[in-house]
């Protein structure tokens, strides 16, 4: 693990020329902490122990799933095994976890120490927001979502109805979007209250809505949908005004992975290409991949930068497409998620969790 740290431990500074030929410093990324899932221990970056202490991952992170799909909680420093046929939902920045069964009528909420806090009758599948104060309970047919709080009580908008839920997009501090295939879109705040509902589909034209994304500041949203025999994305501002429509080159019969920055730039990481759009919908980047990849692709923004897997690399780049860092990528069980502040985020794969700190100008 040490060789990995010192090989990949970086202070990457990208210097590029802008159109006036002045030097512009690209943000710096620094890996300051690594948790080894196999050894169950951590490694600090050189001279970063004090930095990590200020932003302790043990105070930020709730836990993760082991290779046996059991929850490991940092607060308890142990794995919880439960029943063999239990499934789990673990809010990554929250406290504790939910246990339920694939076919069952109860959901149990456990504290960070593994104590049962409540057990309630719900015939639903739970999906948690990152900080775990809100849980979305999706019915078996996908046509109804209940909104409950950390105590298991209905809260906020309480019940959302639509024609088959296809996507949930969460932020850390700015709420969520829940999108149904029929075009029903619910925008909720961080406490589960309804900010607005849009019915995206024109009833006179065939539509199927598949994917969504929400900026971390909550000011921009993106939806992906099929209209007739083509796929499109629409980008909206916080006032529900459509900023532009962008037509995709291909029809994607599944969810696509998108991210949107706090200023409205949009990343589309598709199976066959990667596209970066400006806030006006102009193509800043459009690069084909060597081969068609899996449906799941990394598409992440903390609000100010982007990250995506592309061919055999994991790339970090600015909102205009300037590369900050590129590293070898060969673990497709990887995700990137935000911490509680914009300057911290995490890369998790089957072997490790890495804490990244962003230094910008």
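^ structure tokens above, recovered residues below v
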């Amino acid at each position: 693990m040490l060789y990995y740290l010192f090989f990949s431990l970086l202070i990457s500074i990208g210097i590029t020329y802008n159109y006036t030929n002045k030097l512009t410093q690209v943000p710096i990324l620094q890996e300051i902490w690594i948790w080894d899932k196999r050894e169950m221990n951590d490694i600090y970056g050189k001279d970063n122990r004090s930095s990590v202490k200020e932003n302790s991952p043990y105070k930020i992170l709730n836990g993760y799933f082991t290779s046996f799909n059991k929850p490991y909680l940092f607060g308890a420093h142990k794995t919880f095994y439960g029943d063999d046929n239990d499934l789990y939902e673990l809010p990554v920045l929250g406290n504790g976890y939910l246990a339920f069964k694939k076919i069952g009528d109860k959901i149990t909420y456990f504290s960070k120490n593994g104590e049962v806090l409540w057990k309630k009758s719900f015939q639903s599948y739970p999906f948690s927001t990152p900080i775990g104060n809100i849980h979305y309970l999706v019915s078996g047919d996908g046509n109804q979502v209940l909104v409950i709080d950390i105590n298991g009580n209905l809260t906020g908008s309480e019940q959302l109805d639509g024609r088959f839920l296809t996507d949930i997009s969460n932020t850390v501090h700015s709420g969520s979007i829940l999108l149904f295939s029929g075009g029903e879109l619910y925008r909720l705040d961080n406490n589960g209250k309804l900010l607005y509902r849009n019915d995206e589909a024109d009833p006179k034209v065939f539509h199927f809505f598949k994917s969504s994304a929400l900026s971390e500041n909550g000011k921009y949203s993106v939806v992906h949908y099929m209209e007739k025999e083509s796929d499109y994305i629409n980008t909206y501002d916080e006032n529900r005004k459509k900023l532009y429509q962008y037509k995709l080159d291909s029809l994607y019969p599944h969810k696509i992975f998108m991210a949107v920055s706090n200023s409205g730039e949009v990343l589309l990481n598709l199976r066959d290409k990667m596209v970066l759009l400006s806030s006006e919908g102009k193509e800043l980047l459009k690069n084909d991949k060597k081969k068609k990849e899996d449906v799941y692709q990394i598409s992440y923004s903390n609000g100010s930068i982007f990250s995506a897997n592309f061919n055999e690399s994991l790339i970090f780049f600015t909102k205009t497409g300037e590369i900050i860092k590129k590293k070898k990528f060969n673990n497709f069980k990887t995700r990137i998620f935000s911490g509680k502040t914009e300057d911290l985020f995490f890369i998790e794969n089957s072997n490790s969790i890495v804490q990244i700190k962003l230094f910008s100008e």
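Confidence is low (pLDDT under 50) at residues 1-23.
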